[in-house]
Amino acid sequence: MRYLIDLKTHLGGIHQGKRLDMKVFSFFSVFTVFLLSCGCEKEESIVKRQSDDMGVVIATPYLWKKSLHIKEPMSNSLIKNQIIYNNNFVVPTTNGKEKRSLSLIDSNNGNVLWNWNDFFDGGSEYIDISFHYQYENLLSYQSGASYCINLNNGTTKWRHKRDRSFDVRINGFGQYYFTYATITNNNGFDEGIAFKGDMQIGIIFEYLTPNFTYENPDWLRGVTHIVKVPNRENILLVNYVETSSEWINHPYYGLYDTVSEEWIWDKKRVADPAYETYAYHPPIIANNKIYAAVSNKIVCHDLETGEQLWKRDFGGDFMFTGIIVEEGKVIANCEEINIMYALDAETGTQLWSTPTAGTSSRLSYLNGVVYMVGGSGGGRLFAIEAATGKILWKIDAGLLGEGKDARFTTNAVYVLPAKDDQPAKVIALSGLYAYCFEAIR
Question: What are phi and psi of 353, to 5 degrees?
Fold first, then answer.
């Protein structure tokens, strides 16, 4: 499982990356052997609704479930953020004989619309899509090589083996995407810069270098994220880090105008320098503010000036789930202490907290409810009311007919709004199946 393609590009995040790799390896090792065989057809639910002593739903009828494996089960791959196209969704599947695929699944019935496995290694590699970029019908991600898939039909738009290692992070705006790799500049300093590519052809070129500090040649430096500013056509938020030889990280923001090729403002501290001060997930821009989870902190900055408005410290980090901003709240699941928090997006004031689980999936939101799978505590599918923090679901996959040892994986939880005569849906994966539930209304 490869989160860090290049040490210098990833910078100080290597310390958290090692910890992340160990957590993920430990969690997914339980799926290397499956106890049950599985069929290929959609199955109707025979599950009855059950609740625990607190009234939390622990089992509920599903609309359908679908096998993720054509032949014998294999250890599943992982997609971290939901990939949705035309109200259908992409999941990792296997077809036996050590072959893995990406499949577009019809959300109405679980039917496979297409399979894609045009990997350079023939399809035996573990698929780990930590980040992806989607533009119209095109999906691109990086994992060693770079791939772009036509979501209409599951064909390869392009694929490239690069002449250097690139980070798995990928962002973009419109038909252009950004990726990150280390170069040696004219002064002999190594620096991780942003490359820009065209989604139509995949060719990339060196694009953007922040105003790094070069006084100390032993420091590592590099871009970590570029985020398009909503409703401002040519403005990018650039997140970059400089890391001292003692592995003290100095994270910064800069706001960049792509037309004038000038910085509107730059070198604004994201958080105080520290050993683990590093933003693994891209910042979120909402209501003219910038929100980010940085190690064990959540921080908020003013978009117009880059000045910090507030910060909050917690007892652990948010590396697995990241944060979401919904209903005027910043919502995040703290990994080390297994608690979900909601903060007022304007002030950072804590609105509620509720016990959950750690080593969890990214958060998904639909119609006032936050969904996630908790990796610890049995791999339950959580549904939490965004307004109050009340736990509505903690669904146990072992009660859905697979057997008592079944659990949901920390793959993306897919949420799909109601469309035509179809209800809103929540889709989560176990080691064997994709389960589709009607979303909470």
Answer: -145, 150
